[in-house]
Amino acid sequence: MPNAVEAERSLLAALLHDNLLFDNISDFLKPEHFFEPLHRKIFEAFLFCINKGQLANSITLWPFFVDDELIKEYGGKEYLDTLSSYIVSLDYTKDYAQQIYDRYLRRKIILVGESMVSQAYKMDINNGALSQIENAESGLFKLASTSITKENRFSDAVGLAMKNAELAFKRSDHLVGVPSGFKSIDRYLGGLHKSDLLILAARPSMGKTAFVTNIAFQSAQLGNKVLFFSLEMSSEQLALRILGHESMIPSDKIRRGAVSDKDISKLSTISKKISNLSLFIDDTPALSIAGLRTRARRLKRQESINLIIIDYLQLMSSGGNHENRVQELSTITRSLKALAKDLDVPIIALSQLSRAVEQREDKRPQLSDLRESGTIEQDADVVMFVYREAYYESRKKPAEGSEKLEAWQARMDKIYNLADIIVAKQRHGPIRNIQMGFEESFTKFYDLSV
């Protein structure tokens, strides 16, 4: 197996000679990266002393190995004492560490490859070829995600912030993020910012799927490449919705064929117009976070996607063992936030709200309604709620002939086509309520004013 035993000896010798050299490698080198078991143990003991603020040399480390059988095979205390003879130059400490880490990754790659070969030979009906490919990509991703990182100077961060500010200033819409297609939303959010996790939550029938479908379509129309994970609806159903709100023909009529020749001609023209948009729909049900991550990374590499949308969180699985669903959702949202940063794209994830909303007199959602859904509130950069008062008011219709019927009708006429997008959390700016129009028959949201 690939290894760098000589580099391991030289590194340990340098560290025991000058403990301060550890600062050069502390951000990436771990005991498990060492190939030689004894070197791994010596590095663990070294870390223990350093973390305790103590001196680490052959004298202070020896008590950890007095009864160790492994070191006896190497000559006992004499091996620790003679490590210093392996010092070549103290300037090469980081080079040694990087070589050790490189060989560790190579060994892991070999193990992933051997596992791939072994699994491919097994004709397991519950583990098909495509599933094996996803598992292999997931394994390689885990290796890649532990790669050596580097710190960014504050001056670099300030320079990047100024560059984004100048880009936003020069654009007519003053956006630095990916446009949602809704001017009222983009005005307050500044677009959908790269590496952000945005949560859109609502009770059923509020229109959250319709809202993100509108965003996906409009953003794609503006030239962006959008990946839509639809765990609830099929790609055909989503396409029907888009055809419906673009043609202003209810999608249920399109599905039932209750349309005229003129409507068919209109639909045909629209379908040809929108079919070449860079909107990718993955309607795999019960998708795991590992599977989603693999597919998102692949499409990012192949198509340079700008935006990811997930409908919805509660239909996903973490792929691991958890004590309860709350912990599993926490794992999922943390993974999605990490994915947004890794791919440098905004991710919009939909979420259901608990039934506690229905028990209150005021049905407007609050951040506390997410408390039972893991760490969604903490992990998200932006939390938005969809609320339609008309949905609840329509269920309070007084009896025919009632004195209250006229007042109820007047209220319904006022709020019928209105929807509130409540920005309850935003790292980049203030919270607020954005009122929008909503045509329920066509599942279409639209700006009222900007």
From TrEMBL:
Keywords: ATP-binding, DNA replication, DNA-binding, Helicase, Hydrolase, Isomerase, Nucleotide-binding, Primosome. Its EC number is 5.6.2.3. One of its GO terms (molecular function) is DNA binding. GO terms for biological process: DNA replication, synthesis of primer. Residues 171-450 form the SF4 helicase domain. Gene3D superfamilies: DNAb Helicase, Chain A (1.10.860.10), P-loop containing nucleotide triphosphate hydrolases (3.40.50.300). GO terms for cellular component: cytosol; primosome complex. It comes from the Bacteria. It catalyses: ATP + H2O = ADP + phosphate + H(+). Homohexamer. NCBIfam families: DnaB, PRK09165.1. Belongs to the helicase family. DnaB subfamily. The main replicative DNA helicase, it participates in initiation and elongation during chromosome replication. Travels ahead of the DNA replisome, separating dsDNA into templates for DNA synthesis. A processive ATP-dependent 5'-3' DNA helicase it has DNA-dependent ATPase activity. This is Replicative DNA helicase. It comes from Candidatus Nesciobacter abundans. The lineage of its organism: Bacteria, Pseudomonadati, Pseudomonadota, Alphaproteobacteria, Holosporales.
